[in-house]
Amino acid sequence: MAESTGMREIFVTGLKNAHAMENQALSIMKPQVSRIENYPEVAARLEQHVRETEGQMARIDDLLQELDKGPSSLKDMALALTGGMAAVGHSVAGDEILKNSFANYAFEHFEIASYKSLLTLAELGGFSFATSALQTNLREEEQMAQWIDENLRTVTLRFASLREAGETAKV
């Protein structure tokens, strides 16, 4: 299908939503990283994903610029606020590291679905210039989701061990 005004609008909206989504991801991950003490492997992987997420936002910025558009400041701000509230909400839980792991796993899959949808829209609308950047973002999200999945047992065992020993197990 050739590029149409309607398809362009749908694609631009999707890119703006993805930018805000990644901004939300940063507002969730950065507070988590700053609080982690007993799970260095989780902190290291989150720090790596923060850098990846910053790169994802830059790629989305480039795509929006290619379309003579920019991110939505309102969406970015609103989703960053909700992400920050989620991070604060988990910080008071006795099992914060587990709640963060569950939420991060779910959020990664939300991002995966978003990028798969954007790739479909890029194909449908003839926005082939966007495919490589979107595939890179998708691959990074899939790798992060896989890492969380592969490490959930280890994090849970460490949490239980620390809790049983009477040590701080939250983060």
UniProtKB/TrEMBL annotation:
Sequence intervals crossing the membrane: none
Alphabetized SUPFAM superfamilies for the sequence: Ferritin-like
Pfam families reported in the protein's UniProt record: DUF892
Record protein name field: Ferritin-like domain-containing protein
Organism taxonomic ancestry: Bacteria, Pseudomonadati, Pseudomonadota, Alphaproteobacteria, Hyphomicrobiales
